[in-house]
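**Protein fold record**
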Amino acid sequence: MKISRRQALLSGATLPFAATLPLQASADGHARIPSRAVHSDFTLGDFRVTTLLAGNRVVENPHGIFGLNVDDETFATVSEDAFLSTDAARFFFTPTVVNTGSEVVLFDTGLNAGGISTALSAAGYSTDDITQVVITHMHGDHIGGLTDDSGAPTFANAAYTTGQVEFDTWAGAENDGFDAKVRPLAEKMTFIGDGGSVASGITSVATFGHTPGHMGYMLESGGQQLMLVADAANHYVWSLAHPDWEVRFDMDKTAAAQTRRSLFGMLAADKVPFIGYHMPFPGLGYVAAKDDAFQYVPHSYQLL
């Protein structure tokens, strides 16, 4: 029996860990929590860094999202060269926990409270362990876990940090998700700009474009660095490797492209690893310069 590339992708058969990780997806495109929560631990100096697979979804017609400024033939050629289907793509949603020894900092909260709670539990944390929640930007898949369906805060003991520009933008946008999830926590939030300190060894980096105040975060411990790039690039080929390709989700497409070039150029030159919120799980990798752009190099064992 023949199986098309689209059928294989939609069934999860193209995922390298599909045999051990049952992933759920539906035709409605809604994100699903893995039936067995997954996490991955890394060491950065004295920090314990943990990425959490808080959900995943399959999206059809990726060219309707990525490469909006290139023709179908170009998109198809690039995809084929990277062994990617042009029929559908799988998105990963990967919050990160950084345990500094004195604080437990969660970066972004996934799609809902149940998903982030389950993912944290699998990694050995409870929601009460989180001392600080950092929101990189205000899209729904990053703020969804801040509160439960009743509006109660998910992280009872946490303080909150986000970028001032990002908060101010969404506060004036009449956005239902922001109003439900973020605005009620505003009095507990600290607002920072480029170069702000979240905790010792954690510094904000302005990466505007995807949203007006989108922020990345540089981790530094024991002479090592690791960058949390959030959604500066949403895909390892169709965005990172082709930084000038327009992405539907980027609110300022020109600024987003400029950010990708400067950010990933720096990471490639300095050989700094990074975690991307939508990169293939566990979301950790490196950037190599290639011609006039970049190539994603998945992490293997360097930080284990």
